[in-house]
Amino acid sequence: MKPKLMTLIGVFLISLTGLMFEVLLTRVFSSLLWYHFAFIAISSALLGWGLGAWILTFFRRRYSLLGILSFIFSLAILLFLYIVIVVPATTISLTVYYIFAVFPFLLGGMCLSLVFDIFGKYSGRLYFYDLLGASLGALSVPLLLRVVTPSSLIILTAIIPLLASLFFMSLSKRKQIFPYILIFILVGVFIFNVMTNTMSLPIGQTKALAQQLNANKNLHIVRTEWNSFSRVDLVEGFGDNFLANNYIDTFAWTYIIPWNQYSMNYTKGWFRYLPYAVKPKPKVLIIGPGGGTDVALALASGSNNVTAVEINSLIVKNVRSYGSRAGNIYNNPKVNIFVDEGRNFVSRSSSKYDMVLLGFVDSSSAIIAGGLVMAENYLYTVEAFEDYLSHLNRDGVLAFVRYEIDIPRLITIAKEALKGVGIQDNLKNHLIVVSQTDPSQREKFLGNQMVFIIKKSPFTMKEISRIKPIIEEENLSPVILPYTNIDEPYNQFLSNKMSFKQFESRFNINIKPTHDDNPFYFAYYKPLGIPMRYLMYLSYPFLVSLLLFGLVLLFKRTVRKEKIRLRIHYLIYFTGLGMGFMLMEIPILQKFILLLGRPVYTFSVILFSLLLSVSFGSLASGRFHEKKLPRTVIYSIIIASSIMVIYLFLLTPIIRVLLPLSLPLRIIMTFILLLPLGFFIGIPFPSGMRMLKIEKQDVPLAWGVNGLASVFGSVLATVIGVAINFSTALLLSVLSYIMVIVCTIIISARLKKISKT
């Protein structure tokens, strides 16, 4: 039986809903809990799609189920929204959130698996509509979040499977009025919530904003705004020293200070002023200026040329809203403010500076809670340092304001970066590290704040003499001060008298230099960089999938007395496809972050480009005759694997060449680069589904195996990326696809026997 257009549109809408909900979950988990829990969104989606296929084996697989499942799919999304609003957001409630996040995907997985089971002969066309919906779903969320809040967008997302239900039911003799009624109600609720924001996401109880609101009753939220990658709360009530505070995703914060000429002059005695004492009146590039403190320090030093690059437009808007009360920091004629991602801006810039400064670009509370362990950060890699140094004038300085815990890793990164720009001798004369000593300022685990300064040329005695009085007056601790003091073991390591292995053994944290290929600067934990509790979080979806797979097999054998219709070579075939795709997708996502700038753009654009190009390959697979399917699969995998190997060596240089282009052109080039890879990767899955139908194998079982392997592949890719690098994950992807080739050869032999009989 050939699927009709109504069925294909239903498939498109179900897949569209699934990807929209998945991308939305990354924002929800990041806002309510921590950034690293956004990974749970991906694993819950993969888990749900796979489990849904297996649960389908417990039911009679009839077309009429599609309308019912789509209807319940909508209700499950609404139920998740209700749960996150009424259940306090704590780490303990993560399990509750996770269960209710998986349920919608489970129903979506049942829908898609059922369609493929019924119309498996036309899997290429089905997979095309499936992936077309998924690609548009990935792209639509960042665009829609510009105009509506996540809660409103979740309501809108819940309407889409109801439309799918209508399309599925249109082919049934029994018409249902319930989808029409619920659509009418939800459209009204959506419009009402857009206007009133009555149903909004709460503040996570573990987040800094909630804790500070509870501790200080004078604090009050002035406004809450969302953009495609963050929630920003503007909070007032901190007293005369602070006008307000911007909270990003309710935990990272940056103050807006009532600047005037007196307060700017006063800052010359501040600890954070040290870089400007070394290099007064600089032409300075400030990455991540936030509320404007570092900009004010630059102006106080006499700088007439300040370039500030802030990634979040909402923060710039909030600072500007205070006008003269905030010293017109971002309207000052000496200040050029750009809304962009810092590393991407530097990579595309041709300007030279006297100073490049990064002052607390991240949140201490997030670091302490482990919220950034699995967060990629391209600001603190060897390649990033080399970029910064290459944009400095001959006597320019690169400065960081961070914590004591960062000193060992920053030194290892700085040492490699200086070697990269041709500086290998007397490295200790190219660094200044000064730490605070005030116990009241000390952060648990992180230690005191410190200033870390790198100079391409050796520091001069004149520069050292400028900061000595500040160090003495403020009772600061010089860790590395050329010609004066260099603590051990830094002295021996920088003098090349100590190997990296010996240096590393002196610390109980991971201090290996980070590169663009494994940009997890905050992965402090030995030996893998990820704490054991996170490995447990990552393993839960896989273990649950494995348990349910066993229950499904047991049910079929003991209750239904059915033979398991999934031969071992098909099990390995779909396992290899699931693992291979995720081991490829996650490294590719990471590699393109540098090109596109913001991770949310990368996530959406890469998914859109990859899924759309995969859909083209899927559609093309339907044109091949059944006898040619194994050969087609083998050739497509060989070509796709060859492209991945080429990307392994050439993608980074290609990205650097493309960086100067405008964002629209970079997005277009991203799609062009991914089109051939996605096209050939899109052929094996629907071809495998067709081969399953020829051998009369169980499609839902194979679909679920693919989902289980995808969960494991996503976990494995993340762990390898943090512990080793993404290139290793990409190589494992190639090995997974080679495993598929071996299985395809076996399948080919079996299909030849079937054709002869």
What's the structural blueprint in terms of helices and strands?
Blueprint: H1 5-32, H2 38-55, H3 65-86, H4 94-118, H5 123-144, H6 150-169, H7 178-196, H8 208-215, E1 220-226, E2 231-236, E3 244-248, E4 252-256, H9 261-266, H10 274-278, E5 283-287, H11 293-300, E6 305-310, H12 313-321, E7 335-339, H13 342-348, E8 353-359, H14 364-368, H15 382-390, E9 392-403, H16 407-420, E10 431-435, E11 449-455, H17 461-473, E12 477-481, E13 485-486, H18 490-494, H19 500-505, H20 532-559, H21 568-596, H22 599-621, H23 629-658, H24 663-681, H25 684-694, H26 699-723, H27 726-756
Parallel strand pairs: 5-6, 5-8, 6-7, 8-9
Antiparallel strand pairs: 1-2, 2-3, 3-4, 9-11, 10-11, 10-12, 12-13
Helix pairs in contact: 1-2, 1-4, 1-5, 1-6, 2-4, 2-20, 2-26, 3-4, 3-6, 5-22, 5-25, 6-7, 15-16, 20-26, 21-22, 21-23, 21-24, 21-25, 21-26, 21-27, 22-24, 23-24, 23-25, 23-27, 26-27
Describe this structure in words.
Strand 1 and strand 2 form a beta hairpin. 59% of the residues lie in helices and 10% in strands. The strands form 2 sheets. It has a 9-stranded mixed sheet with strand order 7-6-5-8-9-11-10-12-13, sandwiched between helices. The protein has a 4-stranded antiparallel sheet with strand order 1-2-3-4, with helices on both faces. The radius of gyration is 28 Å and the shape is globular. It starts with a helix and ends with a helix.
